[in-house]
Amino acid sequence: MGKREKRLEKGIESMKEQIILHQEKKTLAESEGKEELARYYRKEIESISERVENRASKIHRKNKDFKKEEDIKGNNLIDKDNLKYKKEAKNNQRC
Questions:
Q1: What sign does the CA torsion over 59, 61, 65, 68 have?
Q2: Which has the least CB within 10 A, 50, 60, 90, 94?
Q3: At what angle do helices 35-73 and 3-32 cross, to 10 degrees?
Q4: HSE of 1 in the Cβ direction (CA atoms, 13 Å)?
Q5: pLDDT of residue 2
Q6: What's the pTM?
Q7: CA 31: distance to chain centroid?
């Protein structure tokens, strides 16, 4: 796991804590009748949730790219249609 992934995961964890904190504050504001403050916390929760999803997708995308590189380096990545075409071409050349 690289440094960037660790930073992204650490950021995700702290944002999840912020979401929980904001949810508690939002329910408190709603119970006190402070609608503007509750609306503010709702927007903050939505914003933080979007950032969490964005960072999670970056981690997922990086892992996916790493697997592709690994497959290419290890020659495990095989395009079956292309392989079938190559075999047919070799058979045609032999005839």
A1: positive
A2: 94
A3: 160
A4: 8
A5: 80
A6: 0.61
A7: 35
